[in-house]
Amino acid sequence: QVQLVESGGGLVQPGESLRLSCAASGFTLSYYDMNWYRQAPGKERELVAGASRFGGSTNYADFVMGRFTISRDNAKKTVYLQMNSLKPEDTAVYFCNAKRRGPWEADYWGQGTQVTVSS
Fold first, then answer.
1. How many Cβ atoms sit within 10 Å of the Cβ of residue 98?
2. Is the separation of the CB atoms in 79 and 85 below 8 Å?
3. In angstroms, what CA-CA distances link 47 with 37, 50, 95, 97, 102?
4. What is the pLDDT of residue 42?
5. How high is the mean pLDDT of the chain?
6. Is 30 helix (H, G, I), strand (E, B) or coil?
7. Cα distance between residue 80 and residue 67, in whole Å
8. What is the pLDDT of residues 26-72, one digit of tens each?
9. For a pLDDT cut of 70, what percent of the chain falls above it?
10. Mean pLDDT of 86-92
11. What DSSP line would sit under 66-90, residue for residue?
């Protein structure tokens, strides 16, 4: 069974850091682009960062401001999001997403982990 489980969220003060983890099971991770999305109350889910199948290409939303880094370890079947210099506006539920493109297109989601940045 395909499963994505996020962890590492919590409550931090502005300027502090968190590292989110996404543990994957039930599929070969290297076949998938991996993404982090987030959703704040009353807002649409938005893409935060993405990494290509082998981590060679990454992309980030403008609001990341160079503060976040996505990485992946296909052997460990884990994806990470290092978040530095956190701001209150980063407060949201963060979701891990696995997307396979091409003829066998697939799209999987984790349950989310809460990140709260508050003084």
1. 21
2. no
3. 4, 8, 9, 10, 20
4. 95
5. 97
6. helix
7. 14
8. 999 999 999 999 999 999 999 999 999 999 999 999 999 799 999 99
9. 100
10. 97
11. T-EEEEEETTTTEEEEEE-S--GGG
What six digits make up the tokens of 54?
A: 């082998």
CA angle 95, 80, 52 (to 5 degrees): 85
Q: Give the C-alpha separation, 37 to 33, whole Å.
A: 13
Q: In angstroms, how far is the first alpha carbon of the chain from the final one?
A: 40
Query: CA-to-CA distance for 22 and 44, rounded, in angstroms?
Result: 21
In 3D, which of 57, 32, 46 has the Cα closest to residue 22? 32
pLDDT at 75: 95
- Residue type at 18? L
Amino acid at 74: N
